[in-house]
Structure prediction request, 30 residues.
Amino acid sequence: MEFVAGFVGGLSIFLALYLFYKLLRGGDER
Prediction:
């Protein structure tokens, strides 16, 4: 259970960082 929770937590953080980075790049390009 702990492994699954940690994996989901890390994945959510990675996804949030990726979306934030993509938003920044999109804003800079346009």
Q: What stands out?
A: The mean pLDDT is 90. The longest helix spans residues 2-29.
